[in-house]
Amino acid sequence: MARTIIEPGRIERQYWRDLWHYRELFYVLAWRDISVRYKQTVIGVAWAVLQPLIATIIFTVIFGKLAKIPPDGVPYPLLVMAAMLPWQFFSSSLTSSSQSLVNSANMISKVYFPRMIIPAGAVITAMVDLLITFGLVLILMAWFHFLPTWRFIVLPFLVVMAFLAALGPGLLLTALNVKYRDFRYIIPFIVQIGMYVSPVGFPSTVVQEKFPQWIGLYSLNPMVGVIDGFRWALLGGKGGITLPSFALSLAVIVLFALLGVWYFRKTEKTFADVI
Questions:
Q1: pLDDT in tens, 244-263
Q2: Cα torsion for 246, 251, 253, 259, to the nearest 10°?
Q3: Under 8 Å CB-to-CB from 204, ≥6 apart: which residues?
Q4: What span, in angstroms and rounded, lies between the C-alpha atoms of 113 and 64?
Q5: 8-state DSSP, 65
Q6: CA-to-CA distance for 237 and 49, rounded, in angstroms?
Q7: Is the pTM of the predicted complex or chain greater than 0.85?
Q8: Are 72 and 239 in contact (CB under 8 A)?
Q9: Rounded distance between C-alpha atoms, residue 264 and residue 270, angstroms
Q10: pLDDT tens digits for 234-245?
């Protein structure tokens, strides 16, 4: 007959093991989020296509045609779509993960499981949109006769980098949102402003040439390194990436990931009481 031994602090020691043990719950929650997102919608998965496509058209007209932003030697629509690939993933992940704990209040208050599964599952769900947008990028590359180079093999690392860039702030914000519900109003503002301070509608070469004194502060934006990295991998070295700027963005991503995990684990014990 199996025995269960309850010891003080044991849950803390095996928390990361529990994440693997509850992996089926992770799959179930991720599938639930995917089905809910596209259930009872008129055009279903096509929303994942229309959002980056419409954004690319708007950026092309406003920044490419009217503002005459230099596209760094590549067709401007392709420059924007290569940036929309990680940005759409980041914005969708951050929005959904930051609200994930509050939206799962009933589950959290009734049963034990590692709570980190919920926001992590929300980030994984956004991978569906990432794959769809990646298909659009490939279509545009074929349309403009852009052949992939050896840099293409770096994409898996950049996807992991984008995942951490979304997960770290997502863990931090969702933990804060449990206690301070005001954060649900701040998050859309962060996403909206972030699109315009990130190199989505322009290459980083514009900042490097016109505002070299601000390049350090500019690179503190974690999405700068991610977007420049995706452009570098997809567009054959284009996009204005520099090693110092990329390294600084990567360092900020790692810092936010560690901070997010630390604060989430620190406050996780109180979620069921506060939520």
A1: 889 999 999 999 999 999 99
A2: -170
A3: 218, 224, 228, 239, 240, 241, 242, 245
A4: 49
A5: I
A6: 26
A7: yes
A8: yes
A9: 10
A10: 987 666 678 888
